[in-house]
Specification:
Length: 749
Amino acid sequence: MNNFLRIIQRQYLRIFLNVLLLMFFLFQVAGFVPLAFIDQLENLAYDYRLVLTMPNTVDKRIIIVDIDEKSLAEVGRWPWGRNHVARLLDELFNYYQVAIVGFDVVFAEPDESSGLKILEKLADGEFTDIPEFRKRVEDLRQTLDFDQLFADSLSGKPVIMGYYFNTSGEGAGTLRSGVLPAPVLARDDFRGKRIDIPEAIGYGANLQLFQNSALGGGHFNPSIDADGIVRRIPLLYEYEGRYYEALSLAMVRAIHNVGRIEPVFVESDMLSKADYSGLEWIRLGHLKIPVDEHVQVLIPYRGRQQSFNYVSASDVLHGRLEPAVLKDAVVLVGTSAPGLFDLRATPMQNKYPGVEIHANLIAGLLDQVIKERPPYTAGAEFVLMLLSGLILSILIPCVSPLWANIIFAIITVLLIVFNLSMWQFANLVLPVASLLVMLLGMYLLNMTFGFFVERRGKRQITGLFGQYIPPELVDELSANPEACTMDAENREMTVLFSDVRGFTTLSEGLSPKDLSRLMNEFLTPMTRIIHQNRGTIDKYMGDAIMAFWGAPLEDAGHARHALDTGMAMLESLNALREEFRARGWPEIRIGIGINTGEMSVGNMGSEFRMAYTVMGDAVNLGSRLEGLTKVYGVGMIVSESTRTAVPDYTYRELDRVRVKGKDEPVTIYEPVALVTEITKSELDEIKLYKLALKYYLDQNWDMAELQLLNLQKQFPARKLYQVYVERAQEFRVNPPAAHWDGVYTHTSK
């Protein structure tokens, strides 16, 4: 928990920027910062969800009688004579026995195509003195008065006439043609509440003769969004204080034989205080229709064009269809012909017949599958954004880039799945664009911050530690910078000293250029080995290397890593000798001293120069151990503390010594091999050596010398045995003090 709080303190700037971005989008959702592009994205998101979940099936209940190109070619250009329309209507009801018909066309002008007006004019003019002519005109009136024929055909049939409202445009307010049907609601029906219903200033309706003869009427005005797409239809339009229903609503009302519609309000003390009327549904008998604040409904598109069966109007007129095709069907008369300009842009396609839009809405009203987007969805969006934004703002700066990407992906997927679930199973349209844009903005902010700001931090760390540690550790420090500090502190660490034997003599036989090349060829692989084992280079001292483990990053296995490094350096040197010999360079031998203990590490020096280094008695002991490798003729010496920290190596105990500058004696060891890799011959040698060392410590000089001479004979290159032979011979002549503890004091470094 404390570590988490420290990370938050370190990442306060990023968290602050995330919260600032979150607040901006919260203000946008609340309506204080309107963004047009968010509305556009919301429309696109709505379209994608709609297209993704459309059933893409054909609804056979609703048939579109299409005034198509075929019909225009056979009957003639539109508008047709009303006698044709009357015959079409008679065929639909009398022969095909449809349930109801709705017209997605307007009959606003009288039909004079029969010539009846001309005959009447002649009867009242040139032929006024010929009674037979007037009588003949009267006899023909019944067959030539096409409007009356159409009105007679409408009478007594369930037919809904279509018309349109004008809402804007020059002269629109004075355009009033035909008569409107009876309104379905008045202002009193809304309980005195102000409802933001679209208001018309003019209309284009049917002739009074037709409207009075029909069962009812409904407007076919769609609601066109800013991008030109039709997604909604207003169920009601207001004109001079009265409210008129849509064509689809009027047809469904007629199908269910419902006398009137009823606004349904949500009653709440909280809503009464807000600028919200509470109107969320229109009740139509047992049907409940969700509406938005403008009393509009979202069109439940079934699919692309032809989601309903189309039949040609000319085929109906000429009786070419099987009666079963249209029996008991809900019929819409409209057009898909491009020349009649009733094609609309919809979420599925740019040219979609307007008549099929109404068919989709009728089907949706009958099936009760209208999507609902009440005003309170903005509150749900606000809550979701607040929760997800706060989680991301606090959590993302505290994790690695990989986990940040995973968390972003998980939250995004969860929000999308939740949104789609509400859409599909609850018919609820929750806003999603602002949420996704906020998530994207927060993602880009954090990635940008990480790239620029944290990259600068990495450069700073690289500048501080790049000369000491490998790039891999620099990356770890960059990901977790609080784990390191330049301030001096005490830690248990392990230090390694390495020195070239006889470097002065070696250098005398080489030119400066060759000496430089030799040292580069030697130091490069040695440094690489140190880096591979997570070591920190303290310094190069001519031919010597000083390195340590456990800082700047803490390393629980510092002793093991240092010892592995020393063994690898000795092994690598064997390969280098062959290469140097091939170049004519002298053979290089090194000594390595390793010690583990409490050390002071940090940036130390003067005001003129600072260096990240280690100091203390434990460091000095490591340096002394390296110097003792020459005395005992071994490649590496480790202290007892290092041996204890790395028990999986087999060691040869070299001596118990008191080094220069240190009063306390220490036991020193030579690491031989890993316990799992040591050979039987090596174990046998160590066993014999331990016996000789026991005789030596027991002051049994004769037996000690005998054992050591035997070992020396078997292993003549082992200088250690010669050292103890000489000591045994000396102590035989000059015995040590009575309380001798076996410690040998070295007086030189």
